[in-house]
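FAQ: What does the model actually see?

It sees only this:
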Amino acid sequence: MDTVAPELLPIKKPWYKQWWFIVLVIILGLWLVLPWFLQLFGYQPPASNGFTALPGATGEPTQVVNMVTVDDPQIGFSAAPVTIVEFGDFECPFCKQEAPVLKQLLSNYPDTIKIIFRDFPVPAIHVNAISAAVAANCAANQGKFWEFHDGLYAGQDNLGLSLYNSLVQSLKLNTAAFSSCLNSSAVVAEIEQDFTDGVSAGVRGTPTFFVNGHKIEGAIPYDVWVQIITAAVAEKFSN
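And it is asked to produce this:
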């Protein structure tokens, strides 16, 4: 495409600047930062079930929660017996680390798993997380979420309008529609709902996964994912 993308407009008075959300983010930020201080003073949280947890994440079994939605980006076999719902933040290094692992799982288990992505931006520690989430949702409106998702992680150190414009051009998105979408109240509401649902379900860091409703926290190695998927399939067909 030879056209040049118009200048992308900043998001106007978004929900995350409202007082109640700022208070919520401060509380969540303290919850996230405390484990780092514990590590600094020699406390090492235990790894549970063989996965690599975020600082402070226990990975303890929790109540089964239905986190499946119909309006969030999905990839994989629609009737797969195992549904993996990820709450992610595009500026989170652990989420970036996990992205190629999940892609490999999709390749190796095409009839077994599907993945749903839900937004959980934490601006208290990731200043570009919200703008990246909005941009990804706008790409989703044009059927290019997963390509944009990969591009954001590849350019994680340079999140911002310049990167978003570059991805718009490389993916041949409609630039005018994309620019207009950045100020869409519907996109803002979608991200807000994901965040609220996550907090309600006990999400306290990224990435957090719900595997057929079972919560698992932190970056997970491929071989551990294989064990998790095998167990999820066995549980699915034993019921």
